[in-house]
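Table 4 source record.
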Amino acid sequence: MAAATLKEPLLPPIPSTSSSYFPAANFASTSRPFNPGVEVLGLKKRGHGFCSWIRVDARTGIAESIELDKFTIMRRCDLPARDLRLLDPIFVYPSTILGRERAIVVNLEQIRCIITADEVLLLNSLDPYVLEFVEEIGRRVPVRNKDAASFGNRAASPDCLPFEFRALEAALEAACTYLDSQAEDIQGESYPFLDQLTSTISTKNLERVRRLKSRLVTLTRRVQKVRDEIEQLMDDDGDMAEMYLTEKKIRRENSFNGGQALLTYNSVGPRVSSSVPVSPVSSPPESRKLDKTLSLAFSRHSSSTRSSESGAQKIQELEMLLEAYFVVIDNTLNKLNSLKEYIDDTEDFINIQLRSESAHSI
């Protein structure tokens, strides 16, 4: 009896691998109306790689909660896995804005989202800045489709920007506002305390100054990174052109429709047997061939010229948008640099005062 007991397995049997380990629901999404504060806890859903996302539709501005796994997001937005890591709340990455073929990946402080021409996807969160960001996108849509299709002929106005630029502007505004509020808080705490420190020098106050400088250095680095990211985008015309997702979507749709029309014409149009000899009379003479070649070359040159001029105009409009928030974040950085100089001046004054007291005591 004892021997039989020893032969019983000490651990429960390992379940056999089957298709139930990767259920079909993994590759589908479920959606429900977005309700802030509901089903936000545990962003990574119970196994199977599910995450709770907030989706904002580009046409209606309506937000809803959906559950998607990582691979579905990668296929849906045509993104590599390394770009999705920037959105993981577990890791801390510096601020980044990446333009891809069909999406813009944004990691700016609390705002971590994927922007496409049709939607914005961001991880579900209770952060008030994230909820405010979702509401702000809803206020800036629906996009006027007729204006979006003729973006090159519009004036540079925030109301005329395509959806992805409106969403990017909302993300920049949220990040810059958050960082500026942090700078205002540390300023309001620092200046009265530093003025008091010059008259009351103690070990406790000096330790408080040390902690204050540490916070200031950390915040300055974050602000500097956002500023550098915006400046880098403004300096690279290729990156800015890559971020115009609506135009690329329209080009893909037109190309697809043109290909479909060509296939339809070839399937129903007249056909000539390859075995029938071609009459020399029907072949165009050399002069007609030359005229046709020159006409085609001129048409391509004119088309490329119009495309480059239109592209330059779009890049200029995006550059103006980035420049506005570059000024805002640069002003925040100047506030922090001024505070750092004030702290350094206060420390110099305290050192002079301590040396003077030491000399008098001798």
